[in-house]
Amino acid sequence: MNPPESAQQRLERSRAQVVMWLERDQTRRDAFANSGLGQLTALPLIRRISAHPLASLALGAITKWWMRPREKRSSGTAVLALGTGLGLLRRRPMLTLATLATVGAVTWWTQFRKRPTASSTHHLK
Fold first, then answer.
1. How many CB atoms neighbour CB 20 within 10 A?
2. How far is 26 from 34, CA to CA, in rounded Å?
3. How many whole angstroms separate alpha carbon 122 and alpha carbon 117?
4. Are 40 and 86 contacting, i.e. CB atoms less than 8 angstroms apart?
5. Rounded to the nearest 10 degrees, what angle do helices 76-91 and 93-114 cross at?
6. Which of 29, 39, 44, 65 is the most buried (most CB within 10 A)?
7. Each residue of 30-80: pLDDT tens digit?
8. Which pTM does this prediction carry?
9. Closest to 59 (Cα-Cα) out of 32, 78, 84, 81
10. Half-sphere exposure of residue 11, counting CA atoms within 13 Å on the CB side?
11. Dihedral of CA 72/77/79/82: which sign?
């Protein structure tokens, strides 16, 4: 059996464990601050929105998902595309929103055009 620890030894072990936890947490915070999502949350609009309790909760959930460990086989292309998109959003927010609205409208329109109209399905009955 191990000899019992003195109070001083337990205190030292506890302090070392707390320091390790704080360093791990700081490493995660630094990784988030340098990530694309961390840079996105630094935008003034996102900061104003995150002051609302429900929006803050949603942003916290997104952040937790974003920082979750992933497999090492992540695609470099996806990271490059995300970095480029966030950089463009930060530099040209109106252009980015207009582009997203246009792509969304085109996508919606192509899906809408694929659906059969009521008159074309009426004669099938």
1. 10
2. 12
3. 9
4. yes
5. 120
6. 39
7. 777 777 666 666 677 767 777 777 877 887 787 777 777 766 655 677 777
8. 0.33
9. 32
10. 3
11. negative
